[in-house]
Specification:
The structure is a single chain. Helix content is 51%, strand content 6%. It is α/β, with parallel strands linked by helices. Helix 2 packs across helix 3, helix 15 packs across helix 17 and helix 16 crosses helix 20.
Length: 858
């Protein structure tokens, strides 16, 4: 009988008449009754299958009794129910889910058990594990200390029997009270106590100050690790079984106590048991992944937000290797459950509690990684209070209601550190991505749950760190489309009510030769008259051309606009030859309206799912997310200046005499004229010294990245947020991911494109023309590959997730002829005649991608 069948049998026995699921009763009372009944029946069940371990037991319903006949698992479950109904006596000590001997066997599902054979357990060893009684004669479990456990191990090794250790582990690891008091930090005399010390005495020796200290737990982690090492040094399956079964027994009780009895608020030491369990080096093994770890994650996900924050701070003190081990264990659980489950459009991964609770637990480790990384707490660079509210997750929803912050945002606020403030976490952000989960996730359904904010619906978009940029970009696409349809619907309703014809699209009619004038003038009028129209679906029409915009025409429009905007003749941006990046020109003659319109264009590109060929340093995207530029940002945007200032900070000589610098910045304009700006009052007379050089560097960076371009950038940001202000863009993405969203992936992997391409019109993967095509393409230069992408898709940029996400279609366009290849850029379809030779295909294809321009009707 498998473990799953065994669990189901016990579960069935745990619901006698009157306590069946679905009974109309108060949820809390019903849950507590079911838990109590199930626990009592389990005690009978394990008495029948495992016994109490006493070879002289006289209980006829105990497996340890000499006259007892072994039962099958199903029979034992039925008999356990009968014993419960008749209130039959239980052996003392009460049986636990612990093996009774050190002789091993392997079950069919890979979980190690012990053979039911009697063991010798002396009275002395028994007292060292469990002694004393409660008010009604029940034994009270004792906590573990490193010294006491080691003493027991030494005694067991000497006697050749590990039964006392196994029994003690079973008692402690299945008891909340015992486990949360185990391995606590204490005074030297307390640390010398053994496992037989009373919990009440231990409480007196722990000071109130230590118990309630905000960020530190009372657990001695090093003692826990040494104890686990000592336990597993003996390779005893009974020990492993005791820990496994103890966790299975413990977790439901923890979940109930946290959910209904506010256990953490009553005793902050409650967190100790989570640390002890997570330090188990075998937690990633298959035995735990199937049942024990999912139950534990469900319990841990019930922790209140203050407890989660406290654990995050605690785990932030871990080394990268230790924290990575915890993350990999939870990731293994998610992957195991995703791959072993049968998910569909009806049964979603969102409905699997083991996966969702594991994601919640993973958020604690994610925040711990952020806290342990390079976190800066600089000022925000956001002038608009409404945008500040959006940044903290309280933006208004489509219905005008204020949106609740996500669980991750609440946790960020509790620990006092946001992800945007972390430049380099302890673990790479990619360590938290789970590829199998992303492949299985139904993004449209998950987005629906995200928007509904219903407590009984779990959305992974509330935990975006576990999702890849490609998955999040798809969710953003759905969000943008929903807003477009909403605007279109409102336009139609307005037309019916007002009796006026209103354009349901954001329609731009432009001339190729005057694209900037036509586009920016039209956008300026819309932004002034009715900014809401910017959130309609974009529809572009080139004057004199017949192309119908289904996406491809818009792509070329943005490409042409970007080329013109960053033209040096406009003087709006400065191009750095070394970094190949553009920066705002602080002495530009263009008005704020021009920079505002550029921000609108950038926002429209994201809103309409178009990738642009723009080259901004990362600080631009950080500033768009309300972060001020700092000295570290100069490394990306102004590398020469960064190295100069860094050398000043590291200089060991006389800074004042050797550098001869003052608190001033010299600037030059487009015409070669120079000007001086004082970084502080009377800065021209303040020399830079060893004592104030850090202040000088900070002020210098602040002027270059913030103050000198404040006017231009504020206008640019205002235009960008006119389109994206209601979007979850900043909630889903980090600055580097927003850059990826706007600029696309830099990897031109045409092998991946070949693998993902579909064929139509008579072509197949084995067609000779198709084979010749890919041989030619793989031999193209990078510029020629970009031209091919531009010709076939309307953009030479690689989408988020790589070229495998492009879904190119190559269709046969008739037999051999002298016609050039053509394309439907709106649908990424490349039309190829079945050319008679490879040379002819090359000549025709290169001519098409090099000289093609404009749209027409085929």
């Amino acid at each position: 009988m498998s473990k799953k069948e065994e669990s189901e049998a016990v579960q069935a026995a745990a619901f006698p008449a009157g306590l069946e699921p679905g009974t109309e009763e108060e949820p809390e009372d019903a849950d507590m009754k079911r838990a109590a009944v199930k626990q009592q029946i389990e005690l009978y069940y394990y008495q029948l299958t495992e016994g109490c371990g006493n070879s002289a037991c006289s209980n006829q319903s105990c497996a340890s009794s000499g006259s007892f006949s072994p039962l099958s698992k199903n029979d034992a479950a039925v008999q356990a129910l009968e014993l419960f109904k008749s209130k039959a006596p239980l052996c003392s000590p009460k049986p636990r889910k612990v093996a009774r001997t050190t002789n091993d066997r392997q079950t069919t599902n890979g979980v190690r058990e012990s053979i039911s054979a009697p063991v010798q357990c002396t009275e002395e060893s028994h007292k060292s594990n469990l002694q004393g009684t409660g008010k009604q004669g029940d034994r009270k479990p004792k906590f573990l200390t490193e010294a006491g456990l080691q003493e027991m191990l030494d005694g067991c090794e000497k006697n050749g029997s590990f039964s006392p250790v196994i029994r003690t582990l079973g008692e402690v690891f299945s008891s909340v009270e015992a486990l949360k008091h185990s391995f606590c930090k204490a005074e030297p005399e307390t640390q010398a106590s053994d496992a037989g010390t009373e919990i009440e005495k231990h409480d007196r020796e722990l000071s109130e100050k230590e118990i309630h200290k905000e960020d530190e737990l009372t657990i001695d982690v090093e003692a826990v690790r040494r104890s686990y090492a000592a336990l597993f040094r003996h390779s005893n399956s009974g020990v492993e079984n005791a820990l496994l079964n103890g966790l299975i027994s413990l977790s439901p009780n923890v979940e109930l106590e946290l959910r209904y009895h506010c256990a953490y608020q009553q005793d902050p030491r409650y967190l100790n048991l989570f640390v002890i369990i997570l330090e188990n080096p075998n937690l990633h093994s298959p035995e735990y992944l199937e049942t024990a770890l999912p139950l534990f994650c469900r319990a841990m996900s019930q922790l209140p937000i203050k407890a989660q924050a406290r654990l995050a701070r605690f785990f932030s003190s871990y080394s990268a290797e230790r924290l990575r081990g915890l993350v990999e264990t939870i990731q293994q659980l998610i992957t195991f459950k995703v791959l072993s489950g049968s998910f569909s459009r009806v049964h979603l991964v969102n409905d699997e509690s083991a996966i969702t609770s594991a994601a919640k637990v993973l958020s604690i480790f994610y925040i711990a990684s952020i806290l342990a990384g390079e976190v800066e707490l600089g000022d925000t660079d956001e002038p608009d209070a409404s945008l500040q509210r959006r940044r903290h997750g309280s933006s208004e929803s489509d219905e005008g209601q204020e949106r609740k912050p996500t669980p991750l945002q609440v946790l960020e606020k509790e620990v006092g550190a946001r992800v945007i403030n972390c430049r380099c976490p302890l673990l790479p952000f990619t360590d938290f991505h789970n590829e199998p989960l992303n492949e299985q996730l139904e993004v449209d359904k998950d987005y629906t749950y995200y928007k509904s904010q219903l407590e009984d619906r779990f959305s992974f978009l509330n935990y975006p760190f576990v999702l890849t940029p490609a998955t999040k970009s798809l969710a953003l696409y759905y969000d943008n489309r929903v807003r477009m349809f909403s605007e279109r619907r409102m336009t139609v309703l307005y037309s019916l009510v007002q009796g006026q014809v209103v354009q349901p699209y954001l329609k731009l009619r432009v001339r190729r030769d005057h694209i900037i004038d036509d586009a920016l003038v039209r956008l300026e009028m819309i932004s002034m008259e009715n900014p809401a129209d910017l959130k309609k679906q974009l529809y572009v029409e080139f004057e004199g051309e017949q192309g119908i915009d289904e996406g491809g025409v818009s792509k070329e429009f943005f490409q042409l606009v970007v080329e013109e905007i960053f033209n040096a003749d406009y003087g709006m941006f400065i191009y750095d030859e070394q970094t190949h990046m553009y920066w705002f020109n602080p002495s530009s003659f263009e008005t704020d309206a021009q920079f505002k319109l550029i921000g609108i264009v950038l926002g429209l590109a994201i809103y309409n799912n178009v990738i642009l060929d723009v080259h901004f340093p990362m600080v631009v995207y950080r500033k768009l997310m309300a972060k001020k530029g700092t000295f570290l940002d100069l490394q990306d945007s102004h590398p020469v200046l960064y190295q100069s200032l860094k050398s000043m900070l590291e200089y060991e000589g006389d800074v004042e005499e050797d550098f001869m610098a003052t608190f001033c910045v010299g600037m030059s304009d487009l015409f070669g004229g120079s000007s001086t700006h004082e970084l502080k009052e009377n800065g021209n007379n303040v020399p830079v010294t060893v004592d104030n050089r850090q202040e000088y560097v900070d002020l210098y960076a602040d002027y270059i990245l913030n103050k000198s371009v404040e006017k231009q950038f504020n206008a640019f940001r205002q235009g960008f947020h006119m389109v994206t202000d209601e979007s979850p863009l900043e909630e889903f993405f980090r600055p580097e991911e927003i850059e990826l969203l706007i600029c696309g992936c830099p990897d031109f992997d045409f092998k991946a494109l070949e693998e993902s391409t579909d064929y139509d019109g008579g072509f197949t993967r084995d067609s000779q023309t198709v084979k010749d095509f890919w041989e030619l393409v793989h031999g193209f230069s990078e510029d020629e590959k970009k031209q091919l992408l531009m010709f076939a898709t309307g953009s030479d940029r690689v989408p988020v997730g790589g070229l495998s996400k492009l879904k190119l279609v190559i269709a046969r366009n008739g037999p051999d002829s002298d016609r050039l290849p053509t394309s439907h850029t709106c649908f990424n379809v490349l039309l190829l005649p079945e050319y008679s030779s490879k040379d002819k295909l090359k000549e025709r294809l290169l001519k098409a991608i090099t000289h093609a321009k404009g749209f027409g009707m085929l």
